[in-house]
Amino acid sequence: MPPRLQLTAVTVGTSQPRELARFYAQLLAWPVTEEQGPGPGEPAEAGWAQIRPPRGEPGPGVGFEYERSYARPVWPSEPGKQNASQHLDIKVDDLPAAVEWALACGAVLAGLQPQDDVRVMLDPDGHPFCLFL
Q1: How distant, in Å, are the alpha carbons of 30, 69, 102, 130, 133 from that of 98?
Q2: Closest Cα partner for 129 from 82, 96, 91?
Q3: Fewer Cβ within 10 Å of end Cβ, the chain: N or C?
Q4: Where is this region: Disordered (predicted)?
Q5: Strands 108-109, 32-36: parallel, antiparallel or unpaired by DSSP?
Q6: CB 12 within 8 A of CB 65
Q7: How many beta carbons lie within 10 A of that of residue 128, not counting itself?
Q8: CA 51 to CA 64: how far, in whole Å?
């Protein structure tokens, strides 16, 4: 029998970890639970941050970690370009209202929308995320 394993967080590589944590904290109404600035000799944008669901709500946290060589993903993927190897799926009750909220928080609506009940959005650092019913 395997040992007990528990997923506690997903970490997103980014050029702006603290700013991206604040974006998703606002979008999801989750608190930023941890934040750390750059280490010695690192650029000002380096560091990491984490958001977690409010107390009593289930789900893993989301971490944002500085990537020195971060390349903004292209969505949908294109040959020879940086692709998004993963994305966040966010369930919503009202898709038009959720899109409006995401835009107000700083997201951008992706140019291609392949499904009627899903909206692909791009966060301020270019990561795609999906809002779905």
Answers
A1: 15, 32, 6, 11, 10
A2: 91
A3: N
A4: 34-63
A5: unpaired
A6: yes
A7: 20
A8: 9
Per-residue pLDDT reduced to its tens digit, 5-49 = 999 999 999 999 999 999 999 999 999 999 999 999 999 999 999
Nearest CA to 16 among 106, 112, 95, 97?
106
Q: What do you get for the CA distance between the two ends of the chain, in Å?
A: 37
Instruction: For each of the domains in the chain, give its residue range(s) and CATH number, in order of start.
Output: 6-69 (3.10.180.10), 71-133 (3.10.180.10)
pTM of the entire predicted model:
0.94
pLDDT for 85: 85
Q: Cα dihedral sign for 101, 102, 106, 107?
A: negative
Residue 109 bridge partners (DSSP): 121
Supply 77's token pair: 């993927």
